[in-house]
Amino acid sequence: MTTQPRIHGRYRVDERLGATRIATVYRAYDDKLNRPVLLNLMRSHLVEQRSLRERFISDSELRARNVHSALPEVYDSGTIENRPFFITEFITGQTMRMRAPLSPLEALQYLRQIVGVINACQQSHIPHPPISSNDFVVVSEGHVKWIENCTLTPNQSLIDIASYRAPERKEGMAETSTSAIYAIGVLFFEMMSGMRPFTSDTADEIAELHSQNDIPPVSSILAEGCPPQIDELMMRCTARNPDYRLHDCDELLTLIERVRRELLIDNNSHSSSAFGHGNSDTTAAAVYSDAYPQRRSGKWVRWLLMVVLVALLGGAG
After folding, report:
1. Strands (DSSP E) along 225-291, which ranges?
2. CA-to-CA distance for 106 and 104, rounded, in angstroms?
3. Other C-beta atoms within 10 Å of 174: how many?
4. Sheet hosting strand 283-284, strand order edge to edge
5. Right CATH for 6-89 from 3.40.190.10, 2.60.40.1190, 3.30.200.20, 3.90.226.10
6. Cis check: omega of the bond before 101, within 30 degrees of 0
């Protein structure tokens, strides 16, 4: 990159930010339109793999269709030194991982946007990033953007993906609309509680925890509790048996709207901020020094549930 300070005489490369599964990502500047952009350059060791090269080019063309406002805009594409690239908008904001926990109404507002963009990608067959709190960014305007975080290490990326993978996928089943619903439910749990339901140091252990355990109601985690509609929504997304989940994003969007209306009616005289606030600091998208904060142990969650159960049994006696 040192011999090519500008790409196509227009994009000035500033610094390397990290890498995704298939691209190296750089912060760059568009000298023609005077704006920061992201350069997504196909990773050098993958260039000679014809199928991946074709996929990279095809993906950039599909993303340029801009089927949803939550997807980063693709401004340009091309090839430099035999490496395909595409240019996208540079996004600033907080990852959902940093933003959580949220109030119920705020979480539902963002969840509606998240489900909307996932639905749009599924219906249009647009390639998209993983469903993860590290990949959804809340921008300054209060809207969500769906990026692929380029700052995670390979092991962190594996753990990140496993944290949202439906139990049936551990057995080798292909991704379906119901497995995406499960991932959305896990994300909603994290948006409400500020933690993931199961954590471990390896992706395999996390997959096993999802396979063997039901995700607890988020009301059992929050000291102040939460409306029962929130637990209902989450449990209809995260049933271990896919037959018991909502079938697709359209059904989920309908339920989100119903729950949102009910909460607005129930809380029209109360501030939803009583359930918690997110951090208000902002940071450049894809530059997340704390995208992977200290993880909470899944054993802690199970211990808390055991305490609650014992208390209930004692009260019944």
Report:
1. 283-284
2. 6
3. 7
4. 144-146, 136-139, 92-95, 283-284
5. 3.30.200.20
6. yes
Which among 121, 140, 131, 151 is positioned nearest to 18, based on CA atoms? 151
83-134 confidence digits (pLDDT tens): 999 999 999 999 999 999 999 999 999 999 999 999 999 999 998 899 999 9
Fold held by 95-311? Transferase(Phosphotransferase); domain 1 (1.10.510)
Task: Classify residue 253 by burial, with Cβ atoms within 10 Å: 0-12, 13-18, 19+.
Answer: middle
Lowest mean pLDDT among 14-23, 156-165, 269-278: 269-278
Residue whose token pair is 């969500």: 144
* Token code pair at residue 2: 């040192």
Three-state SS for 247?
Answer: coil
